[in-house]
Write a structure and sequence with these properties.
It is built from twelve helices and no strands. The chain starts with 16 loop residues before the first helix and ends in a 12-residue tail after the last helix.
Length: about 270
């Protein structure tokens, strides 16, 4: 068995791509050129681009079936993934999408701003078209999150769809540790999602093609601004309340130092 690392696997250097392209079978080269054009500007990839990728790969599958060599499908996909330096799942999922929806059905679905790539990933896992369409309609009408949609598909109770309240901390120390972890996590998420040394969401949006702008785009931006403003207010309020808690901690420590006999009754370190 050939254990040679592939360019599409994580941790494999970019320079291996050239070798993978040279190994690409001749009949896959036209498809590689089409896919490369899309993946070379992957930050521009939209919901419509995923279907285009799937269409290219669906043709590949039809050809392999016509040859009666379905077992070659995975190796062909791996050849393409290696040459493009992407994970093979980035090709398999769009391919599955193109087999699940016709182009007209898909365009009709994604014209709704409530439908995201996360929703689509769950919808294509539903094998029965009528059930899939019903779930999509509910997602649009009731603004289900991808998590809620997944729970509906799995038949989980409604209670699982509600946001769970974190367990209360066991002590004051544990409470502050939890607050620090959550603050660091949220800060990291915001940095990666909106602005960092390597990524600037606003600039990326402004550089995208205007073809994706719809009548609902302005409302989406307004909702984003309002949500971010609410998050900022909430973060400020939480910071103020934590500061009050910190003042209380300082008071307890001073009291402990002045009255050593009550230290056990004011144990905040465990």
């Amino acid at each position: 068995m050939d254990n040679k690392p592939r360019a599409g696997q994580r941790g494999i250097p970019e320079w291996t791509r050239q070798t993978a392209i040279e190994e690409l079978p001749e009949d896959l080269r036209p498809k590689f050129k089409k896919l490369k054009k899309i993946f070379d500007e992957r930050w521009k990839i939209s919901l419509h681009s995923y279907y285009t990728i799937g269409e290219i790969l669906r043709d590949c599958r039809i050809e392999t079936e016509a040859l009666g060599k379905r077992f070659r499908l995975i190796s062909q996909m791996q050849f393409l993934a290696d040459a493009l330096t992407v994970e093979i799942q980035q090709l398999r999922t769009p391919q599955r999408l193109a087999h699940t929806y016709s182009e007209a059905e898909y365009r009709s679905l994604v014209q709704h701003p409530e439908i995201t790539w996360g929703h689509i990933l769950h919808l294509i896992s539903v094998p029965i078209a009528a059930e899939r369409d019903k779930l999509a309609a509910c997602t649009i009408a009731e603004k289900w999150s991808p998590h809620r949609l997944r729970n509906e598909i799995l038949g989980r109770p409604a209670a699982d769809n509600a946001q769970r309240t974190p367990k209360p901390p066991r002590s004051v120390k544990a409470g502050f540790e939890q607050a620090i972890r959550m603050a660091k996590s949220l800060s990291s998420i915001f940095d990666r999602a909106f602005f960092s040394d390597t990524y600037d969401l606003t600039t990326r949006i402004l550089e995208m093609s205007p073809d994706d702008v719809t009548a609902g785009t302005e409302q989406q931006v307004r909702e984003a601004i309002e949500t971010l403003a609410h998050l900022s207010q909430t973060a400020g309020e939480n910071s103020r309340r934590l500061l009050e808690a910190l003042v209380w901690i300082e008071m307890v420590l001073k009291l402990r130092n002045s009255m050593p006999g009550i230290a056990g009754q004011l144990d905040i370190d465990q």
